[in-house]
Amino acid sequence: MSKLGDDELGLILNWITDLNDRRSFSEVCKQWLRVEGLNRSSLRLLEPDALLQVLPRFPNLVTFETSKFITDADLSFLAQTCPKIEVINLSLKTPREISYQFDEVLIFDNVGDEGLCALAKGCPKLSKVLLRRRKNIGNFGVVSLLNLSHNLTYLDLGFCSLVSDLALEAIGSANSISVLSLQGCSLITDRGLGFLAKGSSSKTMKRLNLAECDRITDFGVSLLEQMCCLVELNLAECGPKVTDIGGLSIAAIQSLKRLNLSWLVNVSDHTLVALAENCLNLEMVDLTGCDLVTGVGIRAFAGHKCLEALVLRSCFNVSDSDVVHIVLRCQFLKSVVLDKGLRIWMLPQTQESISRFAELVWA
């Protein structure tokens, strides 16, 4: 019996999807170990210290992920070793219990603009980049990424606290971005939103997360009306300067399907009535903590043809009868989320009536 060549082994390996089975495959002999490495398309690195030893075995990676601290040098080595990478997830998951002092020490070893530039230069096929909580990533790195990665469609810069309007100017000029998260980027202002709304990205952007960008106001939010392809928008916790003025402009985006207005304390029924009338494709609305919302705004959605989920946590001006009304008159409504503190106050008969038509979730 003749020895199997690398090509034949590669074809066999394509049929093995279970990670444990692939590991067993690689342990048969040195040839099988090498072939498994050459055919590996994704890697999740749990031990950054092993990066220099591990990566050379996987030159054809398309997806790379690590939630650990890595350096600019590590990312540069990754770009040199694995130039075919298209998806990279470096989102940092920092435990809440971590001490402030320890966090300050680690941040100096965290990847920054230099590493991001090296990645963009070495991996020209990048399409999806997640950099959530990488505190050293700033405008220079983001601008370089946008200038070099012409296939980039997905960018997560959540809680990258150095990112400001300058980076948004480059993002706004891109013509391929469809998903953008700027959650917690506290330096972003209305000027940055103007770059997004008036640039090429306004014609491609489908999902935009601006949660906790508390420097933006009605003026910037109103500019988003120009983003005609937007399907999902998150404005949660954007502060008191976002009111019904901005809300009415958002209601003019008829393509919207998912909208989060959580904790916008100055958004009221006026916005909801406009949303119900104009956003006929709307499937989900999150109104958590919107103090000014009452049954009038909720009842405006009666008869809406697409609404599937309604989140009303901490909406204390909405009554049981308002919820029953909307559930009975929205035939596609699948779930209603209410504050768990209200559960003991709602009659069992009322809960049963609601549950007949939609899932009642207490959160």
Poorly predicted spans: 97-106
Look at the helices and sheets and give the structural class: alpha/beta
Q: What is the level 1 CATH name of the domain at 246-363?
A: Alpha Beta
- How far is the N terminus from the C terminus? 64 Å
Largest sheet: 13 strands, parallel
Number of helices: 16
**Mean pLDDT across all amino acids:** 89
User: How does the overall form come out from the CA principal axes?
Assistant: globular
GO cellular component, one term: cytoplasm
Domain F-box/LRR-repeat protein 15-like leucin rich repeat: 110-216
Domain COI1 F-box: 3-41
InterPro entries: COI1_F-box, FBXL15_LRR, Leu-rich_rpt, Leu-rich_rpt_Cys-con_subtyp, LRR_dom_sf
Q: How are the SSEs placed, and which strands pair?
A:
Elements: H1 6-13, H2 19-26, H3 30-38, E1 42-44, H4 51-54, E2 63-65, H5 72-81, E3 87-89, H6 100-107, H7 113-122, E4 128-130, H8 139-148, E5 154-156, H9 165-173, E6 179-181, H10 190-198, E7 207-209, H11 218-223, E8 232-234, H12 244-250, E9 258-260, H13 269-278, E10 284-286, H14 295-299, E11 309-312, H15 320-329, E12 335-338, H16 348-355, E13 359-362
Helix pairs in contact: 1-3, 2-3, 5-7, 7-8, 8-9, 9-10, 12-13
Structure in words:
This protein has helices spanning 6-13, 19-26, 30-38, 51-54, 72-81, 100-107, 113-122, 139-148, 165-173, 190-198, 218-223, 244-250, 269-278, 295-299, 320-329, 348-355; strands at residues 42-44, 63-65, 87-89, 128-130, 154-156, 179-181, 207-209, 232-234, 258-260, 284-286, 309-312, 335-338, 359-362. It has 363 residues and is of the alpha/beta class. It has 16 helices and 13 strands. Helix 2 packs across helix 3 (30-38) and helix 9 runs parallel beside helix 10. Helix 16 (348-355) links the parallel strand 12 (335-338) and strand 13 (359-362). Among the domains are: 1-39, Monooxygenase; 246-363, Leucine-rich repeat, LRR (right-handed beta-alpha superhelix), CATH 3.80.10.
